[in-house]
Amino acid sequence: MSAFDPNSLKFNDQGLIPAIAQDATSYEVLMMAWMNAEAVSRTLETGRVTYWSRSRQSFWVKGDTSGHVQDLVSLRVDCDRDCLLMLVHQTGAACHTGRRTCFYTDVTDGSEVELMAPMI
Amino acid sequence: MSAFDPNSLKFNDQGLIPAIAQDATSYEVLMMAWMNAEAVSRTLETGRVTYWSRSRQSFWVKGDTSGHVQDLVSLRVDCDRDCLLMLVHQTGAACHTGRRTCFYTDVTDGSEVELMAPMI
Q1: Is the predicted pLDDT of residue A2 greater than 90, yes or no?
Q2: Cβ contact B111–A4 (<8 Å)
Q3: Which long-range contacts (CB under 8 A, 24 or more apart) does B56-63 make?
Q4: Contact predicate B96/B70, CB 8 Å
Q5: Where are the domains of chain B?
Q6: Is the CB of residue A84 less than 8 Å from the CB of residue A19?
Q7: Whole-angstrom Cα distance, residue B102 to residue A85?
Q8: Which cofactors is this protein said to need (chains A, B) (predicted)?
Q9: Considering only CA atoms, which of A73, A106, A89 is closest in space to residue A30?
Q10: Residue-by-residue DSSP string for B13-72
Q11: Residues of A in contact with B32 (CB under 8 A)
């Protein structure tokens, strides 16, 4: 075991690292967004998943406006230290369209097929 | 339903999109790597997951040298069209370290803990 330092991660030239959120119960992959080192620290300290919004250029505490929070269960680093995987407890829809997951469009057979409707 | 065109995806300024591979049976998240539009097309056409290697600047048919191939089960696009999720049948280890998944290091409690050993 060694102490974890968020600054030991490999960030891209914008200082960001991709973070995948996976449902800790169903194992469904919910979404992928970006974090900077401070967002990683805040996520670990608060237990509330906090991304960096590239469009708004600000911290984005998931669910702060929608109520669709992500509570961190565990955070993992990949072998290259340039990608994060988080197991989370997701309240409501992870996707801004109201769907449980952002990955609701299947394209395997040459056509785009929506796999689920928005949650009520 | 509408026909899927890989060029309708949103690529970054290097022409790449992140692609997450998830085991279609265990739902374990195995790895994240990058694709360009041609890699997406080849993956769909051949059923063999094909990334774009940023370090080698060439196509990377997963498993071509290691034997640890990824056979595509389904490919999904996220709501923003800037990330892909693939359900795959993974032969052997997904990680170049010989571990089943690249996400074998947990950092939740302030220390880095390896969750698994390399496969034999």
Answers
A1: no
A2: yes
A3: B60/B33, B63/B91, B63/B92
A4: no
A5: 14-114
A6: yes
A7: 10
A8: Mg(2+); Zn(2+)
A9: A89
A10: TTS-EEEEEEETTT--EEEEEEE-HHHHHHHHHHSB-EEEETTTTEEEETTTTTS--EEE
A11: 18, 20, 78, 83
Q: Are strands A70-77 and A2-3 parallel, antiparallel or unpaired?
A: unpaired
Q: Is A42 helix (H, G, I), strand (E, B) or coil?
A: helix
Residue A120 predicted with pLDDT over 90? no
Measure in Å the smallest separation between the Cα of B30 and chain A Cα atoms: 9
Task: Domain B14-114: give its CATH architecture.
Answer: Roll (3.10)
Length of chain B as a residue count: 120
To the question of pTM greater than 0.95 for the whole model, the response is yes
Q: How far apart are CA A92 and CA A77, in angstroms?
A: 26
Number of A to B CB contacts under 8 A, please give it. 116
Q: How many Å apart are CA A22 and CA A19, to the nearest integer?
A: 10
Sequence letter at residue B85: L
